[in-house]
Design goal:
By secondary structure, the chain is α/β, with parallel strands linked by helices. It has two domains: 248 residues, P-loop containing nucleotide triphosphate hydrolases (Rossmann fold, 3-Layer(aba) Sandwich); 81 residues, no CATH class. It contains 13 helices and twelve strands. The strands form two sheets. An eight-stranded mixed β-sheet has the order 6-7-8-3-9-10-12-11, sandwiched between helices. A hairpin with a 2-residue loop joins strand 9 and strand 10. The protein is globular, with a radius of gyration of 21 Å. It binds adenosine-5'-diphosphate and magnesium ion. The site of magnesium ion has 4 residues, from helix 2.
């Protein structure tokens, strides 16, 4: 049986490798990452800071600076085309048009000296050749769509005149102007207070349905994943260690790293405990351990874990994990 994600994914990332530096100081920031996103699906990518989430996100838009970065392998098939082999002009036609990205800090996408409306309309003028007045009208409609009150006035304001939550909404409006097929959202709510965070997540979920787009939602917060993702990929030290439908990962997390993250799930309502309640810290990507990259921190580590990287196995349809606990015959698992 195939799930929709396997039948015709909108995007299929396979064995993606991104490295920084060279020789002795080689940093394997993304080290063989694979995942797919179906049309209309929201995939949550979750993991501690430094696990390679943002580099993966930027790679999808081919925004990793080279050098110091290097696309060292793999492919990113988007609607059947490999983004890693496209020309820069080909990528410009895709960015902000078929694939958009939003970031944690809206000010990295919004220019302080231009009005919000001008910036939202910019991609419309570029990709859809709208006239200035048509573009402004669309910008107002987009601000209304992201539930910004008084859009007719806000459209002529500058980013500093908006609150943090409003700026994030304006950035979403900008990202959605051309009705992208895929929205890559990198920690889109991390900088917001919890009430606004919940509102922005609800807005993203609504817009996803309205526009029929897919979302890759990157976060270090399992609470955010629970809120909006259909499926989850858990990243650790540059690799995906577990993938499953969201309900399944909460019901039956298999990888000890996933269990660790879930054991210290920060709640949206506040009192967030940090994910690094897992003992130890993520290895520097320049000094990955042998075998399973999580074994030095793993409470269930066995001798084989230090020696060999575990294969990926499927627990139930769509639930994949990379852990020797699940790959060994039960009798061989340590007592
Ligand atoms: N320009 C760069 N030069 C060197 N190392 C980098 C660069 N960008 C990212 N890295 C490294 O790649 C790793 C993954 O980073 P990142 O994707 O930002 O993690 P996350 O988003 O999961 O917190 C980190 O160890 C980071 O230091
Ligand atoms: Mg990041």
């Amino acid at each position: 049986m195939t799930t929709p994600a396997e039948a015709s994914p909108l995007i299929a990332v396979s064995n993606l490798k991104i490295q920084f530096g060279r020789g002795g100081s080689l940093v394997r920031a993304v080290d063989g990452v694979s995942f797919t996103v179906a049309r209309g699906e929201t995939l949550g990518i979750v993991g501690e800071s430094g696990s390679g989430k943002s580099v993966t996100a930027r790679a999808i838009l081919r925004l990793v600076q080279t050098p110091p970065g290097r696309y060292a392998g793999g492919e990113i098939l988007f609607e059947g085309e490999d983004l890693l082999t496209k020309s820069e002009a080909g990528m410009r036609a895709i960015r902000g048009n078929r694939i958009s990205m939003i970031f944690q800090e809206p000010m990295t996408s919004l220019t302080p000296v231009l009005t919000v409306g001008y910036q939202i309309a910019e991609s419309l003028r570029l990709h859809q050749k709208l006239s200035a007045s048509e573009a402004r009208k669309t910008a107002v409609a987009l601000l209304q769509r992201v539930r910004i009150a008084d859009a007719e006035r806000r459209v002529d304001e500058y980013p500093h005149q908006l609150s943090g939550g409003m700026r994030q909404r304006a950035m979403i409006a900008m990202a959605l102007a051309c009705r992208p097929k895929l929205l890559v959202a990198d920690e889109p709510t991390t900088a917001l207070d919890v009430t606004i965070q919940a509102q922005v997540l609800a807005l993203l979920a609504e817009l996803r349905t309205e526009l029929g787009m897919s979302i890759i939602l990157i976060t270090h917060n399992f609470g955010v994943v629970a809120e909006v993702a259909d499926r989850v990929a858990v990243m650790y030290a540059g690799a995906v260690v577990e993938t499953a439908p969201t309900a399944q990962i909460f019901r039956d997390p298999r990888h000890p790293y996933t269990k660790g993250l879930l054991g210290c799930i920060p709640r949206l309502e506040g009192n967030a405990r940090r994910l690094n309640a897992i003992k130890g810290s993520i290895p520097a990507p320049g000094g990955l351990p042998t075998g399973c990259r999580f074994h030095p921190r793993c409470p269930s580590a066995m001798p084989i874990c230090a020696a060999q990287d575990p294969p990926e196995i499927e627990i139930t349809p769509g639930h994949m994990t990379k852990c020797w606990l699940d790959s060994q015959p039960a009798a061989e698992v340590a007592p």
